[in-house]
Amino acid sequence: MLSLSKNLLFFIALMSVLVSCDSNRVFDKYKSVPDQWHKDSIITFNISPPDSTSKHNLFVNLRNTSDYKFSNLFLIVEMNFPNGKVLKDTLEYQMAKPNGEFLGEGFSDLKENKLWYKEGVVFNETGEYKVNIQHAMRINGEVNGVENLEGITDIGFRIEKHQNK
User: Fold this and answer.
1) How many Cβ atoms from other residues are within 10 Å of residue 80's Cβ?
2) 42 φ, ψ to 5°?
3) How far apart are CA 119 and CA 15, in angstroms?
4) What is the pTM of this model?
5) Domain residue spans of the chain
6) Bridge partner residues of 84 (DSSP)
7) In angstroms, rounded to a whole number, what is the distance separating the alpha carbons of residues 106 and 99?
8) Measured between alpha carbons, how far is 81 from 124 in angstroms, rounded to an integer?
9) Distance of alpha carbon 12 from the chain centroid
10) CATH of domain 26-161
11) pLDDT, tens digit (0-9, with 9 covering 90-100), for 78-137
12) 10, 30, 36, 138: which could form a disulfide with 156 (CB 3.0–4.6 Å)?
């Protein structure tokens, strides 16, 4: 019984440290992908930023398994501003080293990647912003895109307070 309570106390202390280390987080949400991510499936995040004067860094977060068959990833990320402005970017991220080992954090088959999207963004329009994320993968030499992308389990969007260095 004493061992169980020590383990529980240790776990609670560890979780408190981990949560407090993430003080830069403003927004951090994930959405799960069913077995495969269809090319027409758009992952949407609705964001109401709490601060309209400070700078923020924006990230796309991904979780992938060894079922992911590519060394890179192309995404189309669209940010819709409350007053109608739209920014649309096609982004490429490296997902694996040249030897095939996946990048990202994680000790098992599941890797988590925190991918830069934008730096120093000020949300100066009041209201709700919308971020849409869609994959744009192609196989070399083929015209049509990959219809069902395997190995991506979750897509996330994260906003952090910008840190001046």
Assistant:
1) 18
2) -105, 125
3) 29
4) 0.83
5) 26-161
6) none
7) 18
8) 10
9) 27
10) 2.60.120
11) 999 999 999 999 999 999 999 999 999 988 889 999 999 999 999 999 999 999 999 999
12) 30
